Amino acid sequence: MLEFTFQTKIKAPARDIWNMYADFDKRRQWETDLEYIKLDGLFSTGTFGVMKLADQPEMVYTLTSVIPYSQYWDRTEIPHTGIAICFGHEFTPDDNGTLLKVSAKLEKSTGEITDQDILFLSNIFSDTPQSILAIKKLVEI
């Protein structure tokens, strides 16, 4: 497994940050390459969805763990590669705000992690700090 992580403190309650993720209309305010995102049910563990990012094919994802206002993880399998990308979002109360930690993991069903895998995940994760700082700007009090 391979993992990248970014975290920062946001001067806002976890509920306000959570809503930037769970309310898909608000997601477009900070996820600039998002064309659409849909869920086949509630924002809860086990729910499947589809998303479309600019210049990318539609992708199916699963919410693998959802604990409201605390954390959620999603998993997207990359077709025909034996690779899955998992994104985690953890919300930890902190003095006058919330520590937001976002992680991206690459899981590979066979073989060793290669330099190409590292660059692939790095590219996927590259806009994460910018997105989190956009959320911060939108919700800070």
From TrEMBL:
InterPro entries: START-like_dom_sf (IPR023393). It comes from the Bacteria. This is Polyketide cyclase / dehydrase and lipid transport.
